[in-house]
UniProtKB/TrEMBL annotation, chains A, B:
<protein>
    <submittedName>
        <fullName>Nitroreductase</fullName>
    </submittedName>
</protein>
<dbReference type="InterPro" id="IPR023312">
    <property type="entry name" value="Put_nitroreductase_C_bac"/>
</dbReference>
<dbReference type="GO" id="GO:0016491">
    <property type="term" value="F:oxidoreductase activity"/>
</dbReference>
<feature type="domain" description="Nitroreductase">
    <location>
        <begin position="10"/>
        <end position="154"/>
    </location>
</feature>
<dbReference type="InterPro" id="IPR000415">
    <property type="entry name" value="Nitroreductase-like"/>
</dbReference>
<comment type="similarity">
    <text>Belongs to the nitroreductase family.</text>
</comment>
<keyword id="KW-0560">Oxidoreductase</keyword>
<dbReference type="InterPro" id="IPR029479">
    <property type="entry name" value="Nitroreductase"/>
</dbReference>
<dbReference type="Pfam" id="PF00881">
    <property type="entry name" value="Nitroreductase"/>
</dbReference>
């Protein structure tokens, strides 16, 4: 079951923009983040939920899309995300204890995206963010640092995972039918060693 | 469904050590990591699978356990993890392009732990690692940097999530029945703002 969900959870970048996602649904996704692991249980993550169309357009303009698709500036009007969850780090929480390189937001984002897929949506984690601009749009102060943006919507594209040929490029690409191809290293390439007694 | 899985996926630190996890099961977990998102699709993560008892003991001795439980040095013999997945970063892969602060390993670990829970196991992400020592135990060279260790087993403890009282400590604690309590901020505390049109 989970495997189906993980496989269906591709990084989607084109959506049916008019298929809205309710605030209640966004809250349910944050609830999944709330129950996900974090370093030392400090819970420094905070969240901003956005499905209001005008603000969504502003958020969109602060994001970088699919760096490997050189001639594609991102989804056009009508195919943009219907909602966003902006993941913040609250610097009022244990600034001294936590190192800079926390990974809590990645754990949270993975839980939220799997949850979105289960609900018939999908999305993409976006790290290429104009943080200063978005922070201003959202009226955030110095206390809240933007770590990651999760873009969400009803996916309008087919994403296909292909086995990566040894030595080939890992760049994703689009074919003539606009199918988005993602080459993934094979399982055997990922496993450096198995130290096992057979069970 | 996913919510049940996310809620059951607590950070477990005591296990039925004799309940083995097969290499095939560990490979299935890595397959979930393989299908999880990563920055720019570069896939710099590699994995070492360990369920061999003697080596597992060595791995155990390289890990820090539950920093907040000051009088508990970690699980005793008989309650230790039955298996480990060590997540590596392969520095032969795009050393130039990728920044130091990748979060791919956290995404991968979350997928693997959710998968473990679905299979009746559980575990814990451990970042407190004697990297030099473990690297030597595993015969790793400079190419492979240890990012995270995922400890796995059949959980032998009850973990209960409690709502965090405002202003109270986030430290987890154990009661007389050895139930492990984890105070979590409430959903309302996590959400800084909702910018929504009701749908």
């Amino acid at each position: 079951m989970l495997k189906k969900l993980v496989m269906a959870n591709r990084s989607y970048r084109r959506f049916y923009q008019d298929e809205k996602i309710s605030t209640d649904t966004l809250r349910e996704l944050v609830e999944l983040a709330r129950y996900s692991a974090c370093g030392a249980n400090l819970q420094p993550l905070k969240f901003v939920l956005i499905n209001q169309p005008e603000l969504s357009q502003k958020v969109f303009s602060r994001l970088g899309w699919a760096a490997a698709l050189k001639n594609w500036p991102g989804p056009e009007q009508g195919e943009r995300p219907a909602a966003y969850v902006v993941i913040l780090r609250d610097h009022a929480i244990d600034r001294g204890f936590l190192k800079d390189d926390i990974v809590d937001h990645a754990i949270a984002a993975q839980s939220m995206l799997l949850g979105a897929v289960e609900k018939g949506f999908g999305g993409c984690m976006i790290g290429m963010v104009n943080r200063k601009g978005l922070s201003k749009d959202l009226g955030l102060g110095e206390q809240h640092e933007i770590l990651l943006v999760v873009a969400l919507g009803k996916p309008k594209e087919t994403v296909q995972v292909d086995d990566l040929e040894p030595g080939a490029s890992t760049n994703y690409w689009r074919d003539e039918q606009m199918v988005h191809h993602v080459p993934k290293r094979t399982l055997d390439e990922l496993i450096v060693a198995e130290h096992g007694d057979e069970v």
